[in-house]
Amino acid sequence: MKKMEYHNPVLLQETVDGLNVKPDGIYVDVTFGGGGHSREILKRLGSGGKLYAFDQDKDALSNAIDDNRFVLINENFRFIKRFLRFYGVRKVDGILGDFGVSSHQFDVAERGFSTRFEADLDMRMNQDGELSAYHVINEYDESDLRAMFLQYGELRNAPKLARAIVGARSSRTIKTSLELKEILKPFMVKHKEHKILAQIYQAIRIEVNQEIEVLKEFLLQTQELLDVRGRVSFISYHSLEDRLVKRFIRNGMFEGEPEKDLYGNVSVPFKKVGKLIVPSQEEIEINNRARSAKLRIAERI
Questions:
Q1: Do 144 and 276 have their domain in common?
Q2: Residue 183, helix vs strand vs coil
Q3: b or e along 217-237 (b: 16 or more beta carbons within 10 Å of the residue's beta carbon)?
Q4: How far is Cα 299 from Cα 301, in angstroms, rounded to an integer?
Q5: 286 SS3 class
Q6: What is the CATH number of the domain that holds 44?
C-alpha cells in the first residue's frame, strides 16, 4: 500500500509532553492520520508499553507503524470503548486527539474538503460513509440547511445561503464545489471571501461527518477509560470543538454547571493541567494549518 503524504503534526512535542508518557503505560491516539503523534509516543514507551490508534479514513492505513507495541484500528473514535474492549483494554493512561481534517484530506482535491480545488461534493472522512456533501446540499430542507450554516458555520446570513441553494437546485442538481461556489458568490463580502467560504465548508463538513455528536460521545467515554492520573491531550481548530473540550474538562458536561454537595463542593472527572497552549509564530510559518490550533491538557482525578 502506497504511503500517503501528511504534513508534520501540529504541536507535536507539546501534545505528547502533555500525556506524561509512562514507559509501561497504555495510550490511545484517536486521530492517527500520518502517524506523527503516534511515532512520538512510541519513542517514549518501553517494551512493556502499548499504543492503540484510531482512524476511520482508509488512506491512513498506508502509514501503519510496524511495531509490536502498536495497533491501528480503522474505525471512528466515537467507538473507542467498544474496540478497546475487543482488545481486552478497559483502562488507559492517556488519550491524544488532534481533531478536524488532516492535512492529507485537505490536499487531496477529489475528497472535496478544500476551498482551493474543484471537486465533486463529498467531504466524507470515512469514504464508505453514506452521507456526503452532495446529499446535504441537494436533499436537506431549507430549514435544515439554515440551521447547519448558523450552528456549525456561525454564519449570520445562513437564511440567505440556504434559500439560494434551494432555489438553485430546483432547476438543476448541484454536483461540484465550483457549482456551489457560483451559487453562493453573491454572498461573498469583498476581502473576506476566503473566510466566509471556509465557514460554509466547515458547516457542511461537520454535518457530513457528525463531528459535534462524535466529539461529545467520545469525550464522555474518556472519563470511563482513563485510569486515575491518566491524561488527555486534545487539539481543536475551531471554537465549536474547543468550547466542548473546555467545558467538558472544567465541568464534566457540555452545558450547565455540575451539582454541588451539601458543603458546596463539586465532583468533576478532570483537573486542568497548565494553560491553553497555542503554536508559536515559527510553527505557524512552517505549517499554516497550525494557526487556529488550541491544545488543552487535563488529568483524571
A1: no
A2: helix
A3: bbbebbbebbeeebbbbbbbb
A4: 6
A5: helix
A6: 3.40.50.150
